[in-house]
């Protein structure tokens, strides 16, 4: 049987259909599930081996990109979500989904001896060591970028991706920043950086616009947690899953590779 993937939908999310198609091409059986179905208990995370939070503008980004969805994850689904992750379930957050995971403190995660609950879980949202903020350009960025995959990242399934990824970004708040240099060094040391912006030859973007489209520190385009089963990235790999979508008419470097690698790990 094909592995099932829960694709979470909330008001304002608009990339769920594209994410579902990418999952199908990767050999999975995706199901788009509204967040209210989870709240009513009609679906449970334990029914699936993988959760995907797609892009869009959840709740219109009224409180900031991904913030309201992050509140939902912490208030209504904290125990269910963290239990899912602790049991080894895979999670992928794309663009707004990545923002929600970061704002909820799920990425890169907080070291603790026991899971946080209730008020402590909400307080941790204000104690994040990383964030995603407004693009350095001060405007919405919609352009194609190249990504290199860190094959030494804790997300071990990324080691199966050997070539660069070419796909678009479409965001106003994709600027990944860290609390301090110590945080960045720790992320480097522990293999929490999963994707970086590079040029077409795979050379570091070195913060140069538009290779690095948003000003992210150390050209970080995506990260993972310490266990390696939660991954988030700002670019949209679901928008380059067939060659026909390539604006340059070139072959290869499909974003589909990310979905194939994750599905193979299920």
UniProtKB/TrEMBL annotation:
SMART domains: GATase_5. One of its GO terms (biological process) is 'de novo' IMP biosynthetic process. It holds the Pfam family GATase_5. GO terms for cellular component: cytoplasm. One of its GO terms (molecular function) is hydrolase activity. Its EC number is 6.3.5.3. Keywords: ATP-binding, Cytoplasm, Glutamine amidotransferase, Hydrolase, Ligase, Nucleotide-binding, Purine biosynthesis. This is Phosphoribosylformylglycinamidine synthase I. It comes from Caldilinea aerophila.
């Amino acid at each position: 049987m094909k592995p099932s993937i829960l694709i979470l939908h909330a008001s304002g999310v608009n990339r769920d259909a594209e994410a579902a198609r990418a999952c199908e091409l990767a050999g999975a059986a995706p199901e788009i599930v509204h967040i209210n179905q989870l709240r009513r208990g009609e679906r449970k995370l334990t029914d699936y081996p993988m959760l995907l939070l797609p892009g869009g503008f959840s709740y219109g980004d009224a409180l900031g990109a991904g913030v309201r969805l992050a509140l939902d994850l912490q208030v209504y689904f904290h125990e269910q979500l963290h239990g899912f992750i602790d049991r080894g379930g895979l999670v992928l957050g794309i663009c707004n989904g990545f923002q929600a995971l970061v704002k909820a403190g799920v990425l890169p995660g907080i070291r603790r001896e026991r899971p946080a609950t209730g008020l402590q879980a909400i307080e941790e949202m204000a104690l994040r060591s990383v964030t995603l903020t407004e693009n350095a350009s001060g405007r919405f960025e919609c352009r194609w970028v190249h990504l290199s995959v860190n094959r030494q990242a804790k997300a071990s399934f990324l080691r199966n991706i050997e070539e660069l990824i070419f796909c678009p970004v479409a965001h106003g708040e994709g600027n990944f920043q860290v609390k301090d240099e110590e945080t960045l060094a720790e992320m480097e040391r522990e293999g929490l950086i999963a994707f970086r912006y590079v040029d077409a030859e795979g050379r570091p973007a070195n913060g140069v616009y538009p290779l690095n489209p948003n000003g992210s520190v150390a050209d970080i385009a995506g990260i993972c947690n310490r266990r390696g089963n939660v991954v988030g990235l700002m670019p949209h790999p679901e928008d380059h899953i067939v060659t026909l979508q390539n604006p340059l008419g070139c072959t290869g470097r499909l974003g589909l590779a990310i979905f194939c690698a994750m599905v193979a790990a299920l």
